[in-house]
Amino acid sequence: MLLHIFCLLSLAVVPHSISQSTTNSSTKPDCQSRCGDIEVSYPFGIGNGTNCSMNSWFSLQCDTSVNPPKAYLSTTGIEVVKTSESAIYVKYYDRMAIACYDMQFYNKTLDITLELNFSSVPYTLSDANQIISIGCDDLASVQGVLNSKHNFIDGCVSSCSRPDGIGQCPGNGCCQTSISRGTVSLSTELSDLHSNWRRKSKLFPCSFAFVGMMNTSLGNITFRLSDLNDSITLIKNTRLTDMPLVLDWRIGSQNCTKVQNSTDYACQKNSYCIDSDTGVEGYRCSCLKGYMGNPYRSPGCVDVDECMNNPCDSNGLCTNTPGSYECSCPKGYRGDGRRDGRGCYWVPGSRNKVAIGAGLGSGIGLLLLLSTCFWLHKFQKRRKIKKQKEKFFKRNGGLLLQQQISTNEYILEKTKLFTAKELEKATDRFNESRILGQGGQGTVYKGMLSDGNIVAIKKSKLVDENQVEQFINEVVLLSQINHRNIVKLLGCCLETEVPLLVYEFISNGTLFDHIHDDSPEFPFSWNMRLKIAVEVAGALAHLHYATSLPIYHRDIKSTNILLDEKYAAKVSDFGTSRSIAVDQTHLTTLVKGTFGYLDPEYFQSSQFTEKSDVYSFGVVLVELLTRKRPISSDRIEEERSLATRFLLCMERNNLETILDSQVLQRGRKEELIAVAKLAKRCLNLNGKNRPTMKEVATELESIRMSQSLSTTIATTFQQVKLHKAKSILLSDDDYTWTSTADSTISSSCTSPLVVNTI
């Protein structure tokens, strides 16, 4: 015990390395350094035009007529509540989208779109912000520009599982979606989800969307759902005006390599240039290691005198050097003078050999003591890591998985438990260069196991301790699925903070990439599309009917369908999948999925059935037929959904207008009509009227078989015209196809592909 205490005391006298990155706030002479509670540092400045700031965009005005005083950006009049080395925090009062409806006539009485645009200023939206939507069954659609180059579309749905009582963000009556760093502009619009099929079920007249940082000082946003009747009451009770908007700032409009030799270069002596990490060209400055001060103000950063805190041995001498320091020993002493080295020890003359022995003994004893303490510290660290792994393993359901493995040898063969060390080595410690993709459920890394196998490792974002048992049951269930068109789950790792799932690696990208790739180098033929549709339908039918417990995927979309080197389809991403008992008919849950693919009935009831997967697959079929995206932001609200546009064209007997030109040229008319008819059945708004996945798979296989049959007959009997395939392709419906002389396809549904339903 005494040795242990002495070790701790010995370690305590070893100084920690002093951070050299600290900078002091500084302003120009005769300029204010504070406005109320806000400390201002150059390039920002208060008042005096641009004499106190770098330029007008960094100029602040201080209103001293209020208590405490408040600061505002001179160019825009926006209130500033905080500045930092890379961001400013502002109160952007005019940042809310509002949509209100007349509950009697169900028309919009108020429609305000949220518009934020920073394209002409040295600011961009920080990823610390979020888009928050408050309302019942409302869609917040977001469009924006990232890094001044890339357009993006996002959004979220706010639904009320409990239409009376208290709403909460996130949760009942509220949804959130993140904002990417470097967002230059965005536009948020609110729309009622019931506008297409059940408008009269609108619960409250108003909904709201705003942008800001949900900080800990405000806590979670709660509100009475009845406040959705009155926008003023809602804003007052939720303190939305106190929520800051975070903006990243930068200097200039060029990166470091372009501006360093320019006369406009702002970084002063003993500082270095840092490219803006927002993706928009510009830069910031920072002091070199061992220096402190304001890197934008002449004469620049000044050297830190480390010797003031004596970082050397107690008997040593400290000499300050530019950006660093040196340690030495005084006369009569030997050593390097450093506390973390040999230090300084006394070397007397030959007449004092006893003192020399004592000094050497003390030095050796000190080294042994330090060595002992080092290994003791290392042992404790390893023990701590081991206990932490055991804690994570238990929290992530490891004991439950071991119990199931011990009672079933088949599970032992199919479910492998990987160690954290194995997967860290396989992914180079989860290096960013190994990232294959990121989504709402987590990040997928490419890795190579010790046996040379290439795998995909999914690292979850969150872990819900209340669903550990369900997660383990799903891991066991999915690991036993053996289907050529389903990505194989090889095993998992449970001794990390969040579970890691290990899948087989699929090399040829996603179906979405191939559908929407306009490159002429790889023509995505109709035969290949039909083959993929057959394979995906078979895989989903296998999940629904051939496993011990039916499995609902719940997120069928073209980005979750992978293609291997032979372009065989592989259904992936079971992050939201659920298995159900055979006596259950549906699964009640919070609404999850992807816009454009979600079953409309799911929005209303929050009950996910096997027919919800059928609807999502129907959207994928329409993507294969049309080569169009499931959501189009450049169309009117009623036609943004690809499924809606497709059904309208089917109803108006104008299917040809929406089909892909390559499909029209290469595909057989009977096949296209049959697949379109099947897609229409899958997209029926009433789930009971949709076919099962088994029926869908059987019908698609029949269509493909008829294709092979027609090819064989045409090859064998070139002079005989046969129509055997039609009885397989078409059921009770009579379809007629008439083509125009002009091969150009109109953008509206006015083309001559006619579908007549008896």
Automatic annotation (TrEMBL):
GO terms for molecular function: ATP binding; protein serine/threonine kinase activity. Keywords: ATP-binding, Disulfide bond, EGF-like domain, Glycoprotein, Kinase, Membrane, Nucleotide-binding, Phosphoprotein, Repeat, Serine/threonine-protein kinase, Signal, Transferase, Transmembrane, Transmembrane helix. Residues 430-703 form the Protein kinase domain. InterPro entries: EGF, EGF-like_Ca-bd_dom, EGF-type_Asp/Asn_hydroxyl_site, EGF_Ca-bd_CS, Kinase-like_dom_sf, NOTCH1_EGF-like, Prot_kinase_dom, Ser/Thr_kinase_AS. SMART domains: EGF, EGF_CA, S_TKc. It comes from Forsythia ovata. The keyword Zinc does not apply. Residues 303-336 form the EGF-like domain. One of its GO terms (cellular component) is membrane. It is a single-pass type I membrane protein. Serine/threonine-protein kinase that may function as a signaling receptor of extracellular matrix component. Binding to pectin may have significance in the control of cell expansion, morphogenesis and development. It is found in: Membrane. Pfam families: EGF_CA, GUB_WAK_bind, Pkinase. The keyword Cytoplasm does not apply. Residues 1-19 form the signal peptide. It catalyses: L-seryl-[protein] + ATP = O-phospho-L-seryl-[protein] + ADP + H(+); L-threonyl-[protein] + ATP = O-phospho-L-threonyl-[protein] + ADP + H(+). It comes from the Eukaryota. The chain crosses the membrane at residues 354-377. This is Wall-associated receptor kinase-like 9. The lineage of its organism: Eukaryota, Viridiplantae, Streptophyta, Embryophyta, Tracheophyta.
